[in-house]
Amino acid sequence: MKSEGMESQVKKLNKTIRKLEARMQKTEDIEAIKKLQDSYGYYLEHWQEEDLIALFSHNENVAVEINDFGLFKGWEGIKSCYHFEDHYPNYPGLKKAPGEYLHILIPMAGIVDVAPDGLTAKGRWYGYFLGAQRREGELRALIGCGIWENDFIKEDGIWRILKIFWNDIISSPLDEGWVKTPDMLNPKHKDAPPAGPNTTFLHYPSGYIFPYHYKNPVTGK
User: Fold this and answer.
1) pLDDT in tens, 161-220
2) How is the chain split into domains, by residue range?
3) Helix (H) or strand (E) holding 15
4) DSSP H or E run through 28
5) Residues 6+ apart with CB under 8 A from 140
């Protein structure tokens, strides 16, 4: 083989290697982000405050916005949002979730898109909820579903949560169901700031479509 032909083959091979390396890196990033999202649900379930807030970036734009809870901005806002003693007036002074308390929040149907620079990403999931919590002094079995549209950022090679954006679709007593009682939301956080001024949150049966972060994967629209 002439040197020119060999040089061309080497260039093609190097190009293929770079493409495969980029594809592998993207796959690893998506898996890391999915693990991050899954971990969020486990720590939330058990009131593991330190583990939970450790998932978040210290970026000045870090935020959590939840339709029935408010908009929390900055690192101090994150710590306030996940200070569970302030969440549940039915469990005053408790440092960990009581045995009767149940909050299983399962992320499903995840779609993760990593930015071309590999430093930021967006993800959308359904969150399915099974719970046992006190409402008006009575322990109730609860069922619910919502959607996350979250932002992530890679810092020093590690993916962290930049923004949590959650819209409840239903939050209902299990014995009544979502047709009869679609909305039985959490008690208000004692210091909950209002939701963002441009945010729309609507529950079943509104037909509201929580905005997608991505374009149609086939049409590109």
Assistant:
1) 999 999 999 999 999 999 999 988 666 666 667 667 667 788 899 999 999 999 999 999
2) 3-180
3) helix 3-45
4) helix 3-45
5) 132, 133, 134, 173, 174, 184
3-state secondary structure of 155: strand
Instruction: In whole angstroms, give the CA distance from residue 138 to residue 122.
Output: 38
Residue percentage of the chain with pLDDT more than 90: 66
Check the CA dihedral 11-15-21-22 and report its sign.
Answer: positive
What is the pTM assigned to this prediction? 0.91
Q: What is the pLDDT of residues 62-80, one digit of tens each?
A: 999 988 678 999 999 999 8
Report the top-level CATH class of 3-180.
alpha beta
Task: Please classify residue 122 by burial: count the beta carbons closer than 10 Å to its beta carbon, then call 0-12 exposed, 13-18 middle and 19+ buried.
Answer: buried
> b/e string for 148-165 if b means 16 or more Cβ within 10 A?
bbbbbbbeeeebbbbbbb
Alpha-carbon gap, residue 109 to 127, rounded angstroms: 9
